[in-house]
């Protein structure tokens, strides 16, 4: 019987796996038949999030030249490099373009079809446009993958879960708010992929409370403004009259930082320097384990600081007061944060040129405004300053930090992840919206359709309404009959609405304290409570503790997702080749 491989999820991750299987098969699986079953109710390539059937107003969050599905020489892996075009090369776009998601969906479909064409003869792919409901089967035997609306399971020698963003059950506080909404005829829209959310209950002219100031909010903002017929004329927004009034707040109270709007010139920081493979191996070898905040974060701070100051000293030496070699020697020898701060104060005269990660993470901490209107002015000034800095090459040390973040994330993946705080911090600094989106926020704010609530936004449900407050503006509160949770559902195993992962956990798969699925950082095999890898089940994606940064890879940055895909593909092909050999004997 021909070996059978089932991949659940045919979006970018499933497509990337297929590309790596095609790249490695000539070496590891040539001349042997194989059936690959892709299970996804959405079209292969784009999957749910990047499907072509969505609003053309929704953009990619990366420049077209920074999006690739193909490996290069910077990826540390055992398989062969198979180069291919970036999105901008494939589509003939200017590299700085922020393409719409439908175009990205077409690119992903092309990558998928190219991977199919690259598979060796005898390897056949079957797409099943259904949801996978559960997986059963013994550890050492064939698995059964049960599909929605299908009486018999798919039989699989190996199963790979390549799921993307998952729907989730509500947290307790969200459930209370939803119950209040149901009782009083209010609107409560829970965390969701915004393109799938029914926004029709949000009525024109009425206030809407929004919790979340990241990328999900940007999509919501677009669909409720331009999506309802409004338009931008220069720096002004011309309303259609169908827009609600959005009152937005979050833990930080500010939007994610703008994408950097200039290109790199000159030498890159030599990374990794203070947090690389040697440090990862030392942490993994500790018998008592390690704590992220105590043991890992100091290394992250040191690495990001090194990236920042290396760029500042090499590109903008006139703004420093010490020779680079002297600074780097003293920086490496500094025993702790106090010594490092003293060194930086002496070597970098302007505070605007110093890296303060705590201040970046909490920009409104301790700030108080006398009135709601004063805060609107203050936050608009904050956004304008961020836009100016992120588009000014004289602050290119910020781009050094961005490269440092990518390097650090690659090492953290090797550690088995670091939880949701680190992922959120990374996204806030390195994966914010395109500059034009922040300019649109400013225009909507000036038009009175977007109102900023502040940091540590608190929402309560009482007296038949929702109320929002923030310590940023003492005494201010706003009432509304609609609340939107503008964020993606948390990717946890225990709260996944999809029974597939919950049943996997019930069957022995382990989860982290934050609810992520534990996997072997080497090849993605699912781990049980004793740390044993399952011989027949693999998992890759944001719901695992080996999650990687962003949906796509920037060229020439090492690509942790590519490394994972390659390792999984090679492990799978080696297992199936051995299986086929035993069957033929």
Automatic annotation (TrEMBL):
Entries under PANTHER family matching the protein: BLR0577 PROTEIN
Superkingdom field: Bacteria
Span of domain FAD-dependent urate hydroxylase HpyO/Asp monooxygenase CreE-like FAD/NAD(P)-binding: 6-165
Species lineage: Bacteria, Bacillati, Actinomycetota, Actinomycetes, Kitasatosporales
Spans annotated as Disordered: 512-550
Organism: Streptomyces broussonetiae
InterPro entries reported in the protein's UniProt record: FAD/NAD-bd_sf, HpyO/CreE_NAD-binding, L-asp_N-monooxygenase_NS-form
Name this protein carries in UniProt: Adenylate cyclase
Coiled coil ranges: none
